[in-house]
Design brief:
Blueprint: H1 10-13, H2 17-21, H3 24-38, H4 43-48, H5 52-57, E1 91-92, E2 98-101, E3 113-116, E4 122-126
Antiparallel strand pairs: 1-2, 2-3, 3-4
């Protein structure tokens, strides 16, 4: 679904472009994790309470511009369709600050993995090389 409406069934068409571009699901995931941490859950316990569907909607393959009918190019292992949720990795720098993966902008065909801190400062990047894809 490219741009949908409030009545677009997400379970049928996947996230709309508006939901993806606004980081709607990512925000909801971090809100739930933060609430879990505030309730004295461990980070692992807080993440384990995230419903699989919610995590799946935030998967890059569900980006309306990258997945489904719009998918093109080579994939590393098969067709790029997610088959399960293995968990959430937590990245930290040497000072122990948590780093977050910057979302891939819709209009980029390739994009490096960019890790930013909570203030949005880039702390690390892993360049994308098409030859390795």
């Amino acid at each position: 679904m490219w741009y949908g409406s409030a009545t677009t069934p997400i379970e049928l068409f996947g996230p709309t472009r508006y939901q993806w571009d606004q980081g709607y699901f990512q925000q909801e995931i971090y809100r739930r994790v933060s609430n879990g941490l505030a309730e004295n859950l461990s980070l692992s316990e807080a993440w384990s309470k995230i419903p699989e569907k919610l995590a799946f909607y935030d998967y890059i393959g569900n980006n309306p511009a990258k997945g489904g009918l719009f998918r093109a190019g080579s994939m590393d292992n098969g067709d790029g369709i997610a088959v399960g949720w293995l968990g959430h990795p937590v990245f930290r720098d040497k000072e122990g600050c948590e780093l977050f993966v910057r979302r891939m902008p819709t209009f980029f065909e390739t994009f490096p993995v960019v890790l930013v801190d909570e203030e949005g400062i880039v702390r690390a990047d892993i360049p994308f090389r098409r030859a390795e894809s």
